[in-house]
Amino acid sequence: MSHEARLAELGLILPPVTPPAFDYVPAVVHAGLVWVSGQLPRAADGSLPHLGRLGDGVDVETGRKAAELCAMQALAVLRAATGSLDHVARAIKVTGFVASAPGFIDQPKVIDAASKLFGTVFGDSGRHARSAIGVAMLPRGVPVEIEFVFALKGA
Predict the structure, then answer these.
(1) How far apart (Å, rounded) are the C-alpha atoms in residues 129 and 30?
(2) Are 88 and 42 in contact (CB under 8 A)?
(3) What is the DSSP letter of 50?
């Protein structure tokens, strides 16, 4: 089954790509790879429904929802950059940043929600290398920001 067909079968509708607010591009396609800029957890209407830090008012489940939103944004950017998710050979790397209060140690549990979504959409080709990093704060006060690298077919 194609990746686009799988996305439709799951009933997942990708959000619009949010234009960058600063001097960068949402994705760079180079040498058979797509480097997706850090994505914030935006809802389909462009709002940021989750704010704060894990371990300080934001629980792991809310962090996981934020990570899923980041992954959905990444898929939208990926589709816009390549024309179709069917051009994707595999996910290569996920780097997740989790705004964390002192003592919070469950960053991998939070970022795992994005990893799980890629496995659901891409199957085995959704498996990837990953880092889950705790940071003091993230842009606009969001709890999660994730950047991604994908490989294209035929590259």
Answers:
(1) 19
(2) no
(3) -
State residue 23's pLDDT score.
96
| pLDDT value for 64 | 98
Contacts of 35 (CB under 8 A, 6+ apart): 27, 28, 29, 147, 148, 149
Count of structural domains within the chain? 1
Report whether 44 contacts 149 (CB < 8 A): no
Measured distance CA(31)–CA(16) in Å, rounded = 26
Which spans in the chain are helix H?
3-9, 60-82, 107-122
Contact by Cβ (8 Å): 23, 146: no
Q: What is the CATH number of the domain that holds 71?
A: 3.30.1330.40
147 is a domain residue: yes
Residue-wise pLDDT for 104-127, tens only, equals 999 999 999 999 999 999 999 999
Domain of 105, in residue numbers: 41-152
Over residues 74-92, mean pLDDT: 98
